[in-house]
Amino acid sequence: MTERGSVYLRPMTADDTEKIVAWRNRDFVRKNFIYQELFTEEGHREWIRSQVEPGHVAQFIICLSGGREIGSVYLRDIDRVAKTAEYGVFIGEEDALGCGYGTAAAALALEYAFAELGLDKVFLRFLADNIGAEKSYRRAGFRLTDRRETVSTVQGVREVRFMEIDRGMWEAQVTGRASGNGDGDE
After folding, report:
1. Does position 1 have pLDDT exceeding 60, yes or no?
2. From its phi and psi, is residue 30 left (phi > 0), alpha (psi between -120 and 50) or beta?
């Protein structure tokens, strides 16, 4: 996988289980997820067996050019017939938040989704009060849809918003970046 700015992705392996569980269980990460239950190593290993290994999920570790690992990005519910998947990301190191790494990781994940997997559309869900995530997703090329839902979380009932990007939008964005008219690296 290519590098974008100071970020690159590497495939997640079972050896990453302890790190993924620790990151995902941090309060600042959990509060922004729709599913807020504590993760366990056993549950994560089952995720690998039932979702990653059969190809329903492609999950990566977000790495900085110096080798530091800061989070994870994934494409889940990959539907090779409909050519769609759901995108997700979390930065597990608090000092790495707000640095543009999530936006760069999204660009790399979208490149994988469209160029490698041949998908036509990628969508995501996020809690509407997570303004930083929405800004990052917009910079990566996702656009808000009209779809909204509510979910009960530890913090109470919260609104869920949906965003998506299709192949045409992604190709236009890549072409714009290549000609110097893109948003640039974050």
Report:
1. no
2. alpha
Helix (H, G, I), strand (E, B) or coil at 75: strand
pLDDT mean over 158-173: 95
In sequence order, the 6+-apart residues with CB closer than 8 A to the CB of 113 are 75, 85, 87, 119, 122
User: Facing residues of 122 across strands?
Assistant: 85, 165
What are the residues whose beta carbons fall under 8 Å from the beta carbon of 43, sequence distance 6 or more?
Answer: none
Phi, psi of 100 (to 5 degrees): 90, 0
What's the rounded Cα separation, in Å, for the pair 114 and 148?
25
Alpha carbon 37 to its chain centroid, in Å, reads 19
Phi, psi of 63 (to 5 degrees): -120, 145
Instruction: Show the domains of the chain with their CATH numbers.
Output: 3-178 (3.40.630.30)
